[in-house]
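[Protein data]
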Amino acid sequence: MPSPDGDLPREVELIQAADKLRATKRLISSDWGLPHTVEHITQLVSVKFKLDAEKALENRMTLRPPSL
């Protein structure tokens, strides 16, 4: 969901903050559920925030992806 000021979703802010910290090595997103695409944004408002968080994780600088 968006921040109270309407800027970035909280998860994006969390990803950006974790990426800046040297102590944080991994961040597991709360992204779960059905896969969504840009076309779904008009159908469900939360899709934009999910896609924004996915993009923020892709653009991280220091965080490693979780190993399975």
